[in-house]
Design a protein that fits this description.
By secondary structure, this protein is an alpha/beta fold. An eight-stranded mixed sheet has the order 3-2-1-4-5-6-7-8, with helices on both faces. It has a six-stranded parallel sheet with strand order 11-10-9-12-13-14, with helices on both faces. It binds nicotinamide-adenine-dinucleotide and uridine-5'-diphosphate-glucuronic acid. The site of nicotinamide-adenine-dinucleotide (NAD) has 27 residues, from helix 7. The site of uridine-5'-diphosphate-glucuronic acid (UGA) has 21 residues, from helix 11.
């Protein structure tokens, strides 16, 4: 049953009654009741892929705090307040169900939410700018800047403002200036607390983070604010994993972490191209080098390239910042990471065309997966979407399957000719000429490929864009098999 997000909907939970604080005499009645019920009032502006799971985990782990999420997107808030959450994340439903209405609330009432909060996380979107100066590279800070002015407008008491969004280095300086543009009272302390969760494993990453990074201004009040933020995480994260840096290092570390992760993927994908020319096997190469503890084995899976809403945008933002500082060689270095990613997708499509006798016009292709990775319904910057667009340019007919991303796929491909959407991959396989596996969903590893093969046109082609499947077995079934970075297995 849908819940309503009453702002002053205080609960009488014995676990939280004991956390009442003193010093509440000068507050209005609403604030006074909230202060009595909850030790801290935490607000997050932006109830998306980061804000939603992060606040749900804080609320779940800290029943002594009141946690509220506010968003301008009414539909998103309606779904957060329903049984049909707006994002799919394994384990998130149970956490939201446990905390919602107890100490976790979702609302669209920005002004009241800001007024009643002590700590405000800002987790709004910071996409790549699509217009004007820096178009295609710089971060579009309009949503972030609007929240700064909203916080200023609706604040009547001191607040800690936490940058959760990924932002260009030195953004906190602008935030401080906006917030103090009307004077020093109320007082705002700005902290940087970038988020490192990955979609599909968000809950796990939040419960057991490799590290929690908090950056603050090097002032007495900056460090006091940092103490308060660290105390929230210390409810479930070991103190040794909570690290404090100067605020600029924290901001920059987030961009650099994503750039390094993406760089590893481009590095192995560049090697996959060489493997295809030399009969080396990219998975064997990755395994061999990954056993070197200095290299490590993670993020060395070759495929159709990285996607998701952040890797490309954050690297391009890093490139833009470097160029602004006159560091063109550094910018060029990071830009190549994105170029190799695009090259990998072009290579994959070119290979499909050439192996299918240099034409795919009018041919049906079963596409397995549209999400940018497994265990998410998110299709933002999905490599699968890029590949599909190029196949459509060649006039292929696509039959799209995905266990969680069909809703987003339909939105993304609205009005596009040549695509149909299917829940059942076997039904979708009827008379297709090829299968293209584009997202690494476990359920696609477990398909009955003999059944798929039986329904297809012959010769049957299978392009495994994630090196997910048992290629030898597929070959034995009768497929012509094309992995990434490995020799193809062609029927005679
Ligand atoms: P998102 O688009 O899913 O969510 C952002 C939300 O902010 C939207 O629902 C939007 O309506 C809302 N919003 C925008 N302006 C607002 C305003 N003025 N008031 C209230 N709500 C407003 O984005 P996301 O994926 O959650 O990413 C948010 C930030 O976190 C980005 O900077 C991103 O780079 C960073 N980040 C994302 C991930 C991830 O896995 N998606 C991981 C780490 C960091
Ligand atoms: C990534 C980072 O892993 C997070 O730490 C970061 O917080 C987040 O970006 C962000 O800032 O948004 P996410 O994009 O959710 O998380 O997912 P990843 O697991 O990093 O995968 C990104 C892309 O790389 C996916 O398309 C995935 O399929 C691809 N990938 C990943 C590979 O092709 N090979 C690999 O070895 C690993």
């Amino acid at each position: 049953m849908p819940l309503t997000a009453g702002h002053l909907g205080v609960v009488h939970d014995p676990e939280v009654e004991g956390t009442a604080r003193s010093g509440i005499c000068c507050l209005n009645e609403g604030d006074r009741r909230l202060k009595m019920e909850f030790e801290k009032r935490i607000l997050c502006i932006g109830a998306g892929y980061v804000g939603g799971p992060t606040m749900a985990v804080i609320a779940d782990k800290c029943p002594q705090y009141r946690v509220e999420l506010v968003d301008i997107n009414e539909e998103r808030i309606r779904r957060w307040n329903s049984e049909d959450l707006p994002i799919y994340e394994p384990g998130l439903d149970e956490i939201v169900r446990r905390a919602r209405g107890r100490n976790l609330f979702f609302t669209t009432e920005v002004a009241t939410a800001i007024e009643h909060s002590d700590i405000i996380f800002v987790s709004v979107n910071t996409p790549t700018k699509a217009f004007g100066q820096g178009a295609g590279q710089a971060a579009d800070l309009q949503y972030w800047e609007k929240t700064a002015y909203q916080i200023l407008k609706h604040s009547h008491s001191d607040k800690i403002v936490v940058e959760k969004s990924t932002l260009p280095v030195r953004t906190a300086e602008a935030m401080q200036r906006i917030l103090h543009s009307r004077g020093t009272s109320p007082r705002f302390d700005v902290l940087s607390n970038p988020e490192f969760l990955a979609e599909g494993t968000a809950v796990e990453n939040l419960l057991q983070p490799d590290r929690v990074l908090v950056g603050c201004m090097n002032t007495e009040s900056g460090h006091k604010a940092c103490d308060q933020l660290e105390a929230i995480y210390a409810n479930w994260v070991d103190r040794s994993r909570i690290i404090r840096t100067n605020i600029w290092s924290a901001e920059l570390s987030k961009l650099v972490a994503n750039a390094f992760l993406a760089q590893r993927i481009s590095a192995i994908n560049s090697i996959s191209a060489l493997c295809e020319k030399t009969e080396a096997d990219v998975d064997e190469v990755a395994h061999s080098i990954g056993l070197d503890s200095r290299i490590g084995k993670k993020f060395l899976k070759a495929g159709i390239g990285f996607g998701g809403s952040c890797f490309k945008k954050d690297i391009l933002n890093l490139v833009y910042i470097c160029r602004q500082h006159g560091l063109d060689e550094v910018a060029d270095f990071w830009e190549r990471v994105v170029e190799i990613n695009e090259y990998q997708q072009s290579r994959f499509v070119a290979n499909m065309i050439s192996e299918m006798f240099n034409t795919i016009a009018g041919k049906s292709i079963l596409v397995l997966g549209f999400a940018f990775k497994a265990d998410t319904g998110d299709t933002r910057e999905s490599p699968a979407a890029q590949v599909c667009r190029r196949l459509l340019e060649e006039h292929a007919q696509l039959r799209l399957c995905d266990p969680k991303a069909l809703e987003n796929a339909r939105k993304e491909l609205i009005g596009v000719q040549g695509v149909s959407f299917h829940e059942d991959p076997y039904e979708a396989a009827e008379n297709v000429h090829a299968v293209a596996l584009l997202t690494d969903w476990q359920c696609y590893r477990e398909l009955d490929y003999a059944k798929v093969f039986d329904r297809m046109e012959k010769p049957a082609f299978l392009f495994d864009g994630r090196n997910l499947l048992d290629h030898r077995r597929l070959f034995e079934i009768g497929f012509n098999v094309y992995p990434v970075g490995k020799s193809p297995l062609r029927q005679l």
